[in-house]
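> example.struct
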């Protein structure tokens, strides 16, 4: 039985690596934490700190919606909006949000993302994308993005 479990783990691991490879080939970049590694290039490029006001303006989202997206307190978000630097662990979590929005921006105009976040969506069983994010189901949005980019229905 132990050999069978190891084989299943290896198959799952290889499948995950293949999915990551396909994603890397399509996007030409692999983003890890706050570093972007251009596909085929060895030198990482560090992203600048997330500027909350610019981010919110770009995607037409309010500071209150940004607070809901991040799960952080309104006070913390207000501090970042005024220029205070978030901790390293917080910055990594914000980078994941930035990656998600960058992927969405490749599919639709940035100004439409904010309004879309609040609309009920049949792809999420009537929940809005914002509610899906708040429930910690970010993988559902990544899957939707993958399906739209690849043209492969789920």
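> example.seq
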């Amino acid at each position: 039985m132990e050999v069978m479990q190891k084989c299943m783990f290896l198959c799952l691991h290889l499948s995950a690596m293949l999915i990551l490879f396909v994603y890397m080939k399509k996007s030409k970049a692999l983003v890890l934490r706050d570093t972007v590694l251009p596909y085929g290039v060895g030198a990482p490029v560090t992203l600048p700190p997330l500027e909350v006001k610019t981010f919110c303006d770009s995607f037409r989202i309010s500071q209150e919606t940004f607070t809901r997206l991040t799960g952080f307190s309104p006070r913390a978000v207000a501090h970042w909006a005024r220029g205070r630097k978030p901790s390293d662990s917080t910055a990594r979590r914000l980078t994941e949000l930035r990656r998600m929005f960058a992927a969405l921006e490749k599919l639709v105009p940035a100004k439409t993302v904010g309004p879309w976040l609040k609309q009920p969506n049949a792809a999420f069983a009537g929940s809005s994308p914002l509610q899906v994010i708040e429930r910690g189901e970010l993988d559902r949005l990544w899957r939707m993005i993958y399906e739209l980019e690849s043209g492969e229905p789920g």
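> remarks
DSSP finds eight helices and three strands in the chain.
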